Amino acid sequence: MTLRIKIILYALFFSACAASGGGNNESSTARYDENLITEVEIITNNAINAYDLIHNLRPHWLRSRGRRSIKFPQTSYPVVYVNENRYGDISSLSSIGKQNITEIRHLDAADATTFLGSNHAGGAILITIFY
Predict the structure, then answer these.
(1) pLDDT digits over 85-112, tens only?
(2) Structurally, how many domains does the chain consist of?
(3) Is the Cα torsion angle 37, 90, 83, 85 positive or negative in sign?
(4) Could you tell me which of 103, 59, 124, 43 has the C-alpha nearest to residue 51?
(5) Which H or E element spans position 94?
(6) Which residue in 40, 50, 63, 130 is a FRET match for 74, CA 20 to 30 A apart?
(7) CA separation (Å) from 71 to 62, 64, 74, 75?
(8) DSSP code for 30
(9) Is residue 12 assigned to a domain?
(10) Domain of 36: which CATH number?
């Protein structure tokens, strides 16, 4: 390869690296995650239980995803998990006090089925609490 081609290739390589931004910038602002309720959001909200928190902050998590199929006309709602253990249906959220919750995460139907197994047509709500 000639010297001129090498110089051009190096220049293209370094200009591409410079244009990419150089990686992760810790000082940049945190991104909003629609599928996560953080501890800061939990503390600053005036709700008294998990159901009220979700209703106030992400009400679309509580809506039905529609019918499962033509054979099964029942509507599908998310299944609730607390510390990775199945806890119940949407109504069980009212029995979980907000004072111990550190995080609430929503999984859509595909992710819930992948990570938690079948029967999650409405998705899942994962609650992390501390004792």
Answers:
(1) 999 999 999 999 999 999 999 999 999 9
(2) 1
(3) negative
(4) 59
(5) none
(6) 50
(7) 23, 17, 9, 12
(8) P
(9) no
(10) 2.170.130.10
Could you tell me if residue 36 is inside a domain?
yes
Is 107 in contact with 50 (CB distance < 8 Å)? no
Closest CA to 103 of 78, 83, 119: 83
Separation in Å, CA 73 to CA 61, 65, 117 = 20, 12, 21
The sign of the dihedral angle between the CA atoms of 88, 90, 91, 97 is: positive
> In 69-97, which positions are buried (b, 16+ CB within 10 angstroms) versus exposed (e)?
eeeeeeebbbbbbbeeeebeebebbeebe
Cβ within 8 Å of residue 3, ≥6 positions away = none
CA 80/CA 19 separation, integer angstroms:
44
**Residue at 3 is within a domain:** no
Q: What tokens does 56 get?
A: 């106030």
Question: How many angstroms separate the Cα of 94 from the Cα of each of 27, 69, 72, 130?
Answer: 37, 29, 27, 17
pLDDT tens digits, one per residue of 55-83: 999 999 998 766 655 666 667 899 999 99
Q: What DSSP character marks residue 67?
A: B
